[in-house]
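It would be a great kindness if you could assist me with a short task in structural biology. I am sending you one protein, given as its amino acid sequence and as whole-number tokens for its backbone shapes. I would ask you to consider whether the tokens describe a fold that such a sequence might reasonably adopt. The full record is reproduced below for your convenience.
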Amino acid sequence: MWQQLHGVMGLWLLLAVGLALLSGVLRSARFKGWLGERLVRRWLAQGLDPQHYHALHDMTLRLPDGSTTQIDHVVVSVHGVFVLETKHLQGWIFGAERQQEWTQTFYRHRVRFQNPLRQNWRHLKALETLLDVPLAHLHSVVVLTGTAQFKTAMPAQVVQGAAVVPYVRSFNAQLLAPEAVQRILQQLDAQRLAPTRATHRAHVAQLRQRHARPEGPALAPVPATTTAPAPAAALQPPRGRTAAMVEATTPGWTEPVLHPDPAPTMPEAAPSCPRCAAPLVARSLSRDGGDPLYFWRCQRFPECRHMQPRTVQVLPLEE
């Protein structure tokens, strides 16, 4: 009797563990990305005539500088080259065509992510260089495959679900000759890297290296009341990126440390945030080969991302 009971309990335990693992896989970003790309493949195959539209998927191309770029889908026709970026999202989406980041809200969970139109711009520029095709012949398309809904005006280059097919077919002007279409297909086939796990892992590793934080002293949180000397300066983060971008894209990002005080200082009075009226806290950003940059940041970060330069008055040392 006890053996049977233990056997039943063991089966239930294995079932619970299996369901938990399956739930984790289904909720993972990697699975959602795979599912979105598969849906787009099916819609393109069912809705576009293969005699006139040639679809390529999961393309990793090596750029002249040695880096790689990965494109979800490319559709080549006499009406141009369509470059498709797939996003499998849920909840509400807030964003505009030229915004650097969009916001996804799902219940009380809010996430900021890179504008996929900006992400797809790199793909267009890569194809412009590799294929020697005018940029006007390249069409950027972002396909949303989940249940996400735009709560702001949806950009014209963004479509939802199977609407990608009529969107592609809405381009009627002939931009490329049939010979040019065949040449582009041959170039893509010759230049794409093998779609293997090793290729994907190498591309991901390169992306992490590209967005890695510059080498330097360890960064740690600092109290908001800490003061440090610095001349008034415009807020210019390292490598041409904003501090918000550095924090949003760098894994394990922590608050930067303030530069050691070489002299007594008179700190600037803490102002209020002009966006939400919350107090601003003092922060700094180290940069290679130069003095650190000091700035104010909203206390409600990351809900509010307002930042502005911080100035201090350096007092002479007493004799």
User: Anything to note?
Assistant: The chain has a mean pLDDT of 75.
